[in-house]
Every structure is written in structure tokens, then in C-alpha cells.
Design brief:
This protein is mainly α. It has one domain (about 1-285): MFS general substrate transporter like domains (Growth Hormone, Chain: A, Up-down Bundle), CATH 1.20.1250.20. It has helices at about 1-25, 30-60, 60-85, 90-95, 105-110, 110-130, 135-140, 145-170, 175-190, 200-230, 235-260, 265-285. Helix 2 crosses helix 10 (about 200-230). The protein is globular.
Length: about 300
Amino acid sequence: MLVLATRALGQSALSVASITAVGKSFDRNIGVAMGVYSVLLSVFFAAAFVAVGNSVRISGWRTAWIQVAYGLILFAAPITLLLRERPGNTSADRGDGDRGGMSLAAALRTPAFWVFGGATSLFGLVSSGLGLFNEAVLAERGFDQQTYVRFLAGTSIIALVGQLTCGWLTLRWSMQRLLGLAMFIYAAALGALPLLTTLSQLWVFATLIGLSGGMITVMFFAVWRRAFGAAHLGRIQGAAQTLTVLASAIGPLIFAKSAELTGSYFPAVWTLAPCVLLLGLAAFRVSLPNPDSVS
């Protein structure tokens, strides 16, 4: 129960707080900032994964958990002091109330929230299912364990390129266009997955899945400030993240049930790919609200 609590409460709270801190610190260049944030998050997460893995191998899980706790106390806690809003810098002290941002209730009434929240949640659902059973999925197409390891490393690097590229493109393209393009690429990759037979095809798939995944990640971080303003950014991002957490929990269940009923993971892929495509179309058509018009 304590482990579940650390993930459901602690990790989610840290994630929302960090994203909100970046979102409130930047305005016009929020896409670039979130692109850099995504890359740094991926790099530090990978480093932490390796460090904790080594600690577990040498000393066991109990020692690893203690080291993580000390790390949070020594590094995360002091950072919170630096991120506190200074007196006289809050909305209330400035006398502008909630101007420049929509409330959570107002955001939930917009199509943009559900299109972007639904698209990123569906991405989380599919990626969590594929991530858990990735080796078995590739084995269905005849690829061995070493190829699987190289595939994981390759997609991680390509995802970083996708994150940086998407952050740069936010200066030139709309959020809707970028999300729509990313979902189209992701749908194409999913549609091609059950047809892979050669290594070259696998690396094309890795490129598509990595680029689209990196782009969708940046969109999830960047869109909320631009669409809904900063006044209630934490609440809105918290609601969006709740959707992604629930979807990510459902993903492995769908893929496991597909394998149980049909003996293959690919019926789940064939079913989910059109859903990704439809949300990509919706992203192209949806309009972002103007948070500055809300008082």
C-alpha cells in the first residue's frame, strides 16, 4: 500500500508541481521550454533508473528506497523553497484576481481540454500496454531479445529528437497542428506494427513511434498554459494528468485480455490505431480558447 501511495500520490504530486512550475514561468515560449523540460526529464529519469537499478542489485530494494528518500530530502525539498511565490507576486496581491486564466470548471467545458486530454490519455493507454508487453509483441513478429533491447534504446534516443523538434516547432505551428500530426504518425506506426517482418521495417517503426511519442509528450506539457492561462494551471494539469494515469492503468489490461482471448496482442493494436487517428483528426479541427478573455 505504501508503494502504491508513493506512486499515486507522491509521484503524481511531484509531476504536476514540476510541470506547473515550468508552465507558470514561461508564456510566449512555453513550447520551447516544455521541449527542453521533456528532454531533461527523460535524461534524468534514465540516469535515476540506472542508479536505482545498481543499488537494488548491490544492496536490495530496502536500501534503494532509503537512498531515494534521502535524495528527495537533500535535493527536492530545498528546491521547493526556491520555487515559492514571493510575497506581492501572487494574483491576489497584484489585484488582478483570476484574470489571464480559466478556472478548472470552465476548462472542462471546452472541447480543447477533452481533445488534448483524450489524445494524450489514449497515447498513455497504448504506450503503457505496449511498454509492458513490448518484448512479447516483437517476438510475435520474429524479433529476438537482443533486437528488443536495441529497439528500446533507439526509440528513447529518437523520442528526445522528437521532443526538441516539437518544442522548436511550437514557435511556428499551432498546438492543434502539432498534436494532429503526432497522432497521425502514431496511428501509422501502430497500423504498421502487426506487419513488420524485417529489421529495416522495425527501425522505420521505431522512428515513427519515437518521434510521435516525443511530440505528444511535449504537447501534454505545453498546451495547458497556452490554452487556459496560468491562474488555475495546477488544477487543470492535475485533472489532465488524472486522465492519463487512469488510461495508463487500463492499457496493460487491454493488451493482456487481447492475448488471453485471441493468443495475440495485435487485435488490441488494430482496435486502438483507428481511435488514435480519430483523435488526430479532432486535434486538427479543435480551437484553443482565449484565456485572456476570461476574468
